[in-house]
Amino acid sequence: MCPTGTSLSPATKAADLRSAFEILDVDHDGKISHEDLKTFYRDAGDDVIGTMMTVADSNKNGYVEYEEFEEVVKRNNREGGVMEDVFNDMDRDGDGKVGHEDLRSYLSSAGIQVNDDDIKAMVRLGSDTDDGVTFEGFLRILLLAAV
Fold first, then answer.
1. Nearest 5°: phi and psi at 94?
2. In 49-84, which positions are buried (b, 16+ CB within 10 angstroms) versus exposed (e)?
């Protein structure tokens, strides 16, 4: 449900988690709703959004509060999971890297308009080369974008 990395300090992770939570909380009401996720993940079907909510909404009130979000992220770090699935979906050619065209295609399908310079900057954030971003680099991009 959310981006995290394993190479950041605990203090940085906490700040990045809060930022990532605030990005997913599209209407800024302090909790993530089904509608927030649907807005953010425009290409995802209701079944995928429903699964995300079921996994994260531990108190079953229909919303994901920050504490629930944080728990999902910690569990995701231990088990792999949702973000790896998102990465694999973005990796349209299946080469284990998200390249320029992969990013453009995915962001466009999510309704996010970016130019070539934006995409090049994202790839540079996640990789030392221009040939694409690995899963670890992908997490780094998301964390840096959330700050």
1. 70, 25
2. beebbebbbeeeeebbbeebbbebbeebeeeeebbe
Q: What is the DSSP-derived secondary structure letter of residue 95?
A: S
Q: How far apart are CA 119 and CA 104, in angstroms?
A: 7
Q: What is the pLDDT of residues 39-76, one digit of tens each?
A: 888 777 787 888 888 888 999 999 999 999 888 877 76
List the end-to-end C-alpha distance of the chain, in Å, as a whole number: 17
pLDDT digits (tens, 9 = 90+) for 64-116: 999 998 888 777 666 556 677 778 888 888 899 988 888 888 877 777 778 88
How far apart, in whole angstroms, are the C-alpha atoms of residue 28 and residue 24?
A: 9
Distance CA 39, CA 44 (A): 9
Query: CA-to-CA distance for 66 and 108, rounded, in angstroms?
Result: 28
- Residue 83, C-beta contacts closer than 8 angstroms, at least 6 positions apart: 1, 2, 3, 4, 76, 138, 139, 142
Question: What is the reported pTM?
Answer: 0.49
